[in-house]
Amino acid sequence: MARKTAITKNLPLVVIADAYKNITNLLSNEKHPMIDILKINVFEGSFIAEIPPLDDSDTLKRNEHVISIGNIFSERFSQYLQYLIMTDGGKPAWCFDLKNKRYWYFVLPKIKVVNPIGCGDTCTSVLSSILSQMRNTDGKEVREKLKFNDDTPDVVIGLKWGLAAASAKTLTLTGGDFDEKVILQLFDQIKMSEEMKMH
């Protein structure tokens, strides 16, 4: 499902795709408008990149696998896609800036999962909401609240907040009912890497 989010009337459309079936056709079609953000899971990323999914739980191998997916996306799709976000349940999440050949990864806190259903949608929705807030306020208020510098891309800030909300979602049986204090605690527990360069 592609979500076309009009952030404000005066700013450009932001296109967030939260899907993977048939997405290759969109990502390589010069007649299609650029997709700003593609959010998928690592298995889906393997499928699109046409490499076998990894069954190994070894952290180093998994990291190398995800980075190789990011590199393939950068080679094939950077003309039509700005950011690739890949999640993997409770394992690290990744954000690749394909045009500028850089990435960040996020190590999630170990928590007792009560209900994982809907976490992906929660993350995407909160990411969209944060991007909207940042575009409407030049991002200063959000950056100050979340202690980010001016060089960090909006999508990276939004993703970390989305991951915190998704983590909070797993702690309850109900959907969409969050305690902001819990989200802030989880946000602080998510370890985010420095900006890394892609090969």
From TrEMBL:
InterPro entries cross-referenced by the UniProt entry: PfkB_dom (IPR011611), Ribokinase-like (IPR029056)
Residue ranges annotated for the Carbohydrate kinase PfkB domain, each copy included: 32-148
One Pfam short name: PfkB
Superkingdom of origin: Eukaryota
Name by which UniProt lists this protein: Carbohydrate kinase PfkB domain-containing protein
Organism: Reticulomyxa filosa
